[in-house]
């Protein structure tokens, strides 16, 4: 997303990311993986996630997908090489809800949701090209 942020800027689209964590944990994430050209907010109670209709993947299924992807080589960079990032990911896996899946929601200038994609698994994100197409046709 950050590599193509200028395509959203050209359309005067504000990008906002909401993570299922406390603000302090988001700050730690930004220290290791940032900076980002958009704001990341925390939603530790997952109220926004619940309202969006997101799904929580069963633990066994997510771990099975990760193991299969690692063994077959389909999942690359499962664990970052950089030590600080690696420690952060390991801490996240122990202390955060890594099973809840995300969503992408487009709102118009009046705050009305005009399009939504609910991720069913970690690899099921709406593509940037799809988002830009939806923005150009819906907003």
UniProtKB/TrEMBL annotation:
> Which Pfam families does the protein's record reference?
AhpC-TSA_2
Supply the InterPro entries for this chain.
PXL2A/B/C, Thioredoxin-like_sf
Enumerate the Gene3D superfamilies for this protein.
Answer: Glutaredoxin
- This protein's name: AhpC/TSA family protein
Give the organism, scientific name: Rossellomorea oryzaecorticis
For this protein's source organism, the top of the classification is: Bacteria, Bacillati, Bacillota, Bacilli, Bacillales
